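Hi Y.,

Following your request, here is the sequence exactly as I used it, all 184 residues.
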Amino acid sequence: AFQTIWGDRDRFVSTYYARYCKDPKSKDWRDWPYLTGDAAVQAEDGYYRILGRIDDVINVSGHRLGTKEIESAAMVCTEVAEAAVVPVNHDIKGKEPDLYIALKPGIEPSDALAKKISDMICEQIGKIAKPRCVWLVKDMPKTRSGKIMRRVLASISNDRDVGDVTTLANPEIVTEIQEMLKKK
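Below is the corresponding structure, written out as tokens. Let me know if you'd prefer a different format.
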């Protein structure tokens, strides 16, 4: 027995298991691989590299844009050290991407650089993926293991409470980013 969706076991099975199930009557767990919602690739060295969630998409005017795709397009610019895309609510489009960029050491932030990054995204993906804003930040809010906390950035962009940030390795950056956004 496994967990299910309340009152709709068939939907649960069809969503998570049926696509990959070898034998629906089998009681052997090996016949029941399931959709985790994570994306991964197997590298040449045999190791699997976790890429992130497959549901990390932003619906912009009916177009489903992958956040990783936008981040990768921004990373084409040699000045960019890290990129994080978060959805921002929009009355007409539904959502818009906001882009946070941490620059490589020695690179100074400028409006021209923000435009260059935005233009690169339009060139690589299309104008539909153009960020609402490109925020050039000193650092990203991160966990102690180095994971960018996109939840915090999304809360900042949508002017919501960021919640508990005590687990961040650099909680001071949250206030710095909030103050930067208020100035613009």
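The helical segments are 9-16, 67-75, 111-124, 150-157, 172-183.

Thanks again,
Q.
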